[in-house]
Amino acid sequence: MSSGPLSIHLAGVPLTNPIVLAAGTCGYVDEIADALPLSRIGAVTSKSITLEPREGNAPWRIVDSPQGMLNAIGLANVGLNEFMQKRLPAARALPCSFFGSVAGHSVEEYLTVAERFDAAPEIAIVELNVSCPNTSDGLQFGEHPDALRTLLRAVKQVVKSKPLSVKLSPNVGDIVAMARAAVDGGAQALVVSNTFSAMAIDVESRAFRLSRGRGGLSGPGIHPIVVRMVHDVYLGVAREAGVPIIGLGGVCNWRDAAEFILAGASAVGMGTALFIDPRAPLRVVDGLDAWVRRQGCHSIAELVGRAGS
Ligand SMILES: Cc1cc2nc3c(=O)[nH]c(=O)nc-3n(C[C@H](O)[C@H](O)[C@H](O)COP(=O)(O)O)c2cc1C
After folding, report:
1. pTM score, two decimals?
2. Domain boundaries defined on the chain
3. Annotation: CATH topology of 8-56+75-196+217-303
4. Burial group, residue 148, by CB count within 10 angstroms (0-12, 13-18, 19+)
5. I need a surface site. Which of 66, 107, 150, 214 has the fewest CB within 10 A?
6. Rounded to whole angstroms, how far apart are CA atoms 213 and 211?
7. Is 218 in the pocket of ligand 1 (CB under 6 A)?
8. Is ligand 1 within 6 A of the CB of residue 101?
9. Ligand 1 proximity of 142 Cβ (cutoff 6 Å)
10. In which residue ranges of the chain is pLDDT below 50?
């Protein structure tokens, strides 16, 4: 691993640089490698994997918007067994780290997937996507602190050999309370955040543009809101707990990424930008490298949380 100014340790996992490709935006493992040399980024995150295969929602499940895009993919994926047998082996040859994203509709489903991910040497960090409704009460794990804490305490029993990260939902009144519940439950890293609940309507046909009516907004329009959330979570919970944040939302260029670092993120995710230009992370890495040097720092870690100072 390079030891340049961008190299970091995220919850103890060494990364060449802080750029992480976001869950669901770059396939299962290495599909984006034809367009983006993965040796130049820190980590790839798998799309969220559920116990059983899922076809996801009917089309349309992605639509554009002036601020980014709306999606309602519905966790389409091949399911745990096929992922482990046919997709995950490609991660052995990756020149960067690999994070496994877990989704589920019950505590038991999360446990089964997380336990297999814990045993897989290809996976450096297990990331929980908690923006999923629990089939037993219909409430999203990521929108209720008690449900989140209970889920995490259970998952911590099976994720023993590597860090457990939690991807917070922004669709809550108090994201700091959710971050606190996650850290109480044993989260060793926090991803801030998932997509924002949103809707788009075709005014001529009067039809919802997404088949499911609603979906999640991602892209540049959410970036300033997520910068504020990262800062709130950093000051409210993460700094004192020593838990790193991955800032994720609308990063298109190095300035957006640098903002996340100054707000309190130790690493930076990119998702929607990959749909516009899969090579965008390369420019972000180069821009961050020059910025860290201009700031007179030896390591980007020195700039984490330094907004306002
Ligand atoms: C098409 C699409 C699919 C996504 N699938 C997942 C997923 O499987 N699991 C997950 O945790 N987040 C998923 N996300 C959310 C992204 O990982 C990310 O949190 C969000 O898009 C905000 O970052 P961005 O503005 O850089 O895209 C998806 C986003 C998009 C646009």
Report:
1. 0.98
2. 8-56+75-196+217-303
3. TIM Barrel (3.20.20)
4. buried
5. 66
6. 5
7. yes
8. yes
9. no
10. none
